[in-house]
Amino acid sequence: MISKVTLAKTAGFCYGVKRAVDGVYGKYNEGKKIATLGPIIHNRQVIEDLQSKGIYSYSRVSDIPKDCVIVIRAHGVGEIVYNEIGKREYLDLTCPFVSKIHKIVSEHYKKGYEIIIVGDKNHPEVIGINGWCNDSATIINDTNYKIDEIFAEKDICVVAQTTINRDFFGEIVQNIKKTCKSTLIFDTICNATKDRQKEADEISRNSDTMIVIGGKESSNTRKLFEISKRNCPNSYHIETIEDLPQTKTFKKIGITAGASTPSSIIEEVVKAMSENLKNEENFAELFEQYGSKTLNNGDIVEGTVVEVRNNEVIVDLGGFKYNGQLAADQLTDDPTLKPSDVVKEGDVIKVYVVGVNDGEGKVVLSRKKVEAMESWNKIKAAYESGEILEGKIIKAVKGGVIALTDGSQVFIPARQASGRFVQDLQSLVGTTVNYKIIEIDERRRRIIGSVRVILEAARKEKEEKFWAEAEVGKRYSGTVKSLTSFGAFVDIGGVDGLVHISELSWNKIKHPSEVVKEGDVLDVYIKDLNAETKKISLGFKKMEDNPWTIAQSKINVGDVVKCKIVRMVPFGAFAEIMPSVDGLIHISQIADRRIEKPEDVLTLGEEVEAKVTDLNWDEKKISLSIRALIPVPEKEEKEEEVPAELQKAETLVYSTDPEVEVEEVIEIEPEETADAE
User: Annotated catalytic sites, by residue?
Assistant: First the structure.
């Protein structure tokens, strides 16, 4: 007993075939005497019905009676046939997809390209395509076909029969590319064929038996049968209900039909199958799923995403015969996103019907239109309530930027795009911002937003909170906003304070950029503030980082230190013991003999060893002596005793710290003695 019957939504007439059949019957109903150039479609039942009405097919234009309107079928014809028709009345019902191939082949053949057609050389569509390159095309219908090496250095243009198997086409293309260096590939398999073959593949994988309905001469029906047979061994290619298999052992049945199969034949087969359903599923309910839904331009419907391609999304419209096509530029306004970034297979989305069965046999959809309609109402509500919205900046335009919110594009003027002047608006593209609607033009449907009003409101709130809690000594984590020659301005929560250059480092620096840069986060404290003038002085240096504090923990009287001569004065030389910590080597302590000036012995930048002879941390003074490290000769006569007052003068120590005053030195010369020479 049959438990389930699944009917392919793509089963039956494609747009091109339906257009051709309707065109013939329409012309007949006008009372015209007509004849077709070749069978209008590959379906015996339709051909027989047309013959019953006196509509016959002919192989050549010259065979068609002069009083008949000549009908060109969906498969199309070569260029020479139009020349043969001349001024006779004719009705061109060539499928738009096939006409597109004619144009591609004609243009590239005239440019000198060698044409390759992937398809059946005996199929009328392929014969017609070949007629647009003077019947010179190479026609391939075998994956093992060996491309002549003569093509290797030529420009090649490759097209496909619209009903060819997609995988088969891909395999042949790869073989062509291996031999031919300059190749243009045009995937001209029509969308209806792709969708039909994909659905047949899916249904046949989940069925015990597969019924493929269509004429034995129909190329696309044979392709469907091949796909079904590969997945489901119990597959049958039938033309009418009389060809149905008699066995009743199958349970799950899948049904599809070729592009030339009339809906009446499909209906008969489905009805016959549904009569044996175990669950007594009603035939009308089953067949209602097949092509019964009517769509009109402007409809808003829900659909399910069934395939996501590089440049479009295919949408199942739930009951309508054709799937809808949603182009990438109608999916989202964000140019940086691909279709796969926005939707995935299985997603249910709301779409706007732009056009049904247009010139290319599509149902054209737009998601942007739906989102724009819904978003407009949200925007108006947000404007009235003052709600803060979120949007992504998608592009910079003259005078401002465009933010995208729920499908609506909002113009944000340059002066409103940030809390401060932005030189390069392009730098904002790709960022997400919060903004408020400040103006709406209903007539022009123009929306103007502002980021600045939000930032200013937030800043004002922070500023009020800051001044209510601020006090000298309070610490903050602040961000460097800008640098000047005299310091750095730091945002400490809604207000900016100045860290003077002297507060940035214990070392002497020429510019704040030597220590900090914009965006750095600093740990600062309030040194001084004035609520009336709104000026805040900030401190940054830490006592534990004071070089003199560090030196105090490391240097003791009697230590021998390595130091570098950094400055000469008449009374001695200053030597750097560690960064920002200098000691004085008095002139009397430079050598073991009397010298006129420090330069007689020392040079700037010279590294020497000296002994620490005295420390005064309160006044930041360190006394050093090189002389103390010079060995005294054993036979040296006793050195003349130096008066106490002179000793004091010789041991005065001076600091280079700008905050410490330097004492004036008065050098006392000893009295000459008889043996001074």
Answer: 125
